[in-house]
Structure formats: structure tokens, C-alpha cells
Amino acid sequence: MRHLLGIEEITLEDMNQIIETAKSMKFVLERKIKKVPTLRGVTVANLFFEPSTRTLNSFLIAERRLSADTVNISKSFSSVEKGETLLDTVKNIEAMKVDIVVIRHSVPYSPHYLSERINASVINAGDGSHEHPTQALLDVLSMIEKFGDLRGLNVSIIGDILHSRVARSLILSLKKMGVKITLCGPSTLLPEYFQNYGVDITYNLKEGIVDKDIVYVLRIQKERQDGCFIPSLNEYIKYYSVTKDILKKYAKKDVVIMHPGPVNRGVELAPDVADGPWSLILQQVTNGVAVRMAIIYLLSGIPRSEE
Ligand code: CP
Question: Which domain holds residue 137?
């Protein structure tokens, strides 16, 4: 692997290699001194042209845990604001001898575009509504830690599927791993063509919850819609909010709740569910650092020294 552009571009073997490497990175993160010299001399540029709390900071922490040098570039503090193109910006960053470029951008396939034009490795940290591969990989690691073998598991993904890069990457990942997937949401946010992924579709929340081992909840992406996909937030809450009452009524006793964040509390997920015993949400965030350490390490091409 030279780049990580999407789950579509990688094999099950690649995924397993990343997950196994992430498991060994977790040992580093559990040490008193949570840092290894493995990537000394490697430089990573984090270009985030959309807001981020989890992805940006877990990449940054992952890079620092591996002793890589890092530089952060946001749209508002770059010369893109003065009219420079994305490619010119990245080529100039690369001219400073950067080895790996992590990019989050609102335009789908922008990481692919860059990967064909620069020599540095490119990691997709979310490209519009297209893919968010590192999120899917940290989700898979969190699921494996909880359930072991994922084959035959019943997972539902509930919410704004249409605008969700997380949903696309997660569907592609879980299909490779033999998971049975049900998508659930209002028909305007869940087009029928998603059936082409080989998943079940329901517009009924009860069907999205009954018999599921994992209920993966997505937020309504207000920034990617113009208000015409749902009549009102209140109506969405009435029919699709995952609450304690709904779980008690329909869910398996040991159901696991996941969410990529940021959570819109009281909209797609009730606060007592987000914080309750079902929730794996903060474990997902913890695993994000290990998965990103694994990806940066594997793309760097540097052999692991004895530690
Ligand atoms: N899950 C996720 O991508 O969160 P951020 O937008 O905070 O990075």
C-alpha cells in the first residue's frame, strides 16, 4: 500500500494487516511512556479543510506517539484563502520534504486526485460524502475487540446514510468481513440504490433495532443538506431517535451502540444511551489513535525496530 484512499481500494488482507498492527500499537499506548522512536525523521502534513475534533487530533497524537514530525494546515490559515489551488498548496508542502499527507476535504475523490500528482503517501481523512476509511477501520477494531470474529454478526446503520462517508466506508468494510448489514432511515436519506451494496434496507426504526448485535447511529449532517430531506428535526427525532425506551422495547439485551461522533445529543441519540452501558463511543475514539498509528507506520515503509 502506498496510499490509503478508501476501503474500496484495499483488500481484506490489507484490512487485517492494519487491524493487527493497530492491536500492537495499543500496547504502546498503554505504556507509561506512550511514545516510540519508530518514525523519527518522517514528516506528516495534516491538511484539514473541514472541521474535525476526533480525526485531526487522533492523527496528530498518533504521529507524535511514533515520533514523526508534524505540520497542521487548515483552509483558513493557508494560501487557499488567497486563491491558491489545492494541488499547488500540496505541491509546495511536499517541496518541504513531507513524506505523508493526511487530507480531509469536502470534495469527493480529492485524496485520489492528489495521490496521482504527488510523490508523498496520501491518507484520506474524509472526502465529502464519499469515504472515511480510517473511521471504518477503527470501528472494525472496536467491533473485533467486543465480539471477536465478525462473521455472521447483525449490524444496523441508522440515520443520514445518504450524506455519510462513514456509512459508505463501514458498509464496504463490514461486507468484506462477512457481516449482515441493515440500513435504516427516512427514505429521503436512504436511497434504494444502497441495496446494490448487498444490504437490507428498512425505513422503520423497530426493524433497524430488533435482533441487531450492533446499532451504529449516524448524525443528521445539517452542513450537507439544504433542509429539504426531512420535514423537521422534531419529526426526525419522533421516528428515528435511538432512546433508552426504544432499546428496552426492541433491542437485544446486550446490544452495542456505536457512533462516529460528533453526536447530536437528543437528536439521533438520547444522551443516556450515548453515555450508557451499551455505548462503545469513547472506545472507538481511543482505538482511532492506534489505527492511525498503524496506517502511518505501514505507509511509511519503515521496518519496525526491536522495542
Ligand atoms: N468521526 C469523525 O470524523 O469526527 P471528526 O469530524 O470530529 O473528525
Answer: 133-284
Confidence band of 256 (pLDDT split at 50, 70, 90): very high
Instruction: For residues 45 and 103, state if they share a domain.
Output: yes
Do 102 and 156 belong together in one domain? no
Residue among 49, 104, 135, 218 to mutate when testing ligand 1 (max atoms within 8 A of CB): 135
Q: Cβ(114)–Cβ(127) under 8 Å?
A: no
- Percent of the chain scored above 70 by pLDDT? 96
Question: What mean pLDDT do residues 96-115 have?
Answer: 97
Indicate if 79 and 188 belong to the same structural domain. Answer: no
Q: Does 301 show up as a binding residue in the annotation?
A: no
Instruction: Please tell me whether residues 163 and 240 are part of one structural domain.
Output: yes
Q: What is the pLDDT of residue 307?
A: 43
112 burial (CB, 10 Å; 0-12 / 13-18 / 19+) is: middle
Contact criterion met (CB below 8 Å) for 189 and 183? no
Nearest atom of ligand 1 to the alpha carbon of 126 = 3
CATH of the domain at 188: 3.40.50.1370
81, 93: one domain: yes
Q: Is the pTM of this model over 0.90?
A: yes
Q: What are the cell numbers at 264?
A: 447530536
pLDDT of residue 81: 86
What's the CA-to-centroid distance between 57 and ligand 1, angstroms? 9
Q: Going by CA atoms, what residue is nearest to atom 4 of ligand 1?
A: 54
2 lies in some domain: no
Domains in the chain: how many in total?
Answer: 2
CA distance 5 to 121: 10
Query: With 60 as the cut, is the pLDDT of residue 86 above it?
Result: yes
Alpha-carbon distance of 174 to 170, in angstroms, equals 6
Q: Which amino acid makes up residue 253?
A: K
Are 159 and 295 within one domain?
Answer: no
pLDDT digits (tens, 9 = 90+) for 144-186: 999 999 999 999 999 999 999 999 999 999 999 999 999 999 9
Residue 133 among known ligand-binding residues: no
Q: Are residues 25 and 114 in the same domain?
A: yes
